[in-house]
Fold this sequence. Notes:
28% of the residues lie in helices and 42% in strands. A hairpin with a 7-residue loop joins strand 1 (45-54) and strand 2. The protein is built from three helices and four strands. The chain has a four-stranded antiparallel beta sheet. By secondary structure, it is of the alpha+beta class. The protein is globular and about 40 Å long. The chain has helices at residues 2-10, 13-18, 31-44, and strands at residues 45-54, 62-73, 76-89, 92-98.
Amino acid sequence: MRSRYTAYATHAIPHLVRTLHPDSPHRGDDIARLRDELRAYCRATRFTALEVLAAPVPTDDEGFVHFRAHYESGGQARVMEERSRFAKHGGRWTYVAADDDTA
Length: 103
């Protein structure tokens, strides 16, 4: 989770793509388009803080992280809260999607 937040903050698009699970609904088939969308989002957003609210011990292949990301966009301070689901793929933890039980 922290590495993905840092990647958003530093515009490390290759890391964001590499740590996105192949089954994620955010991925799609057009990786070039995904990279362009991530690049545009990162340019328009300044990340200011990350709060990890909960990160229970994961199972062998699935884990969850509940967090708040503080950022500025369009001159406005904003907060995004999510409970993210991660799954192992190729021996590495990858982001799948927001869990339906997000607080």
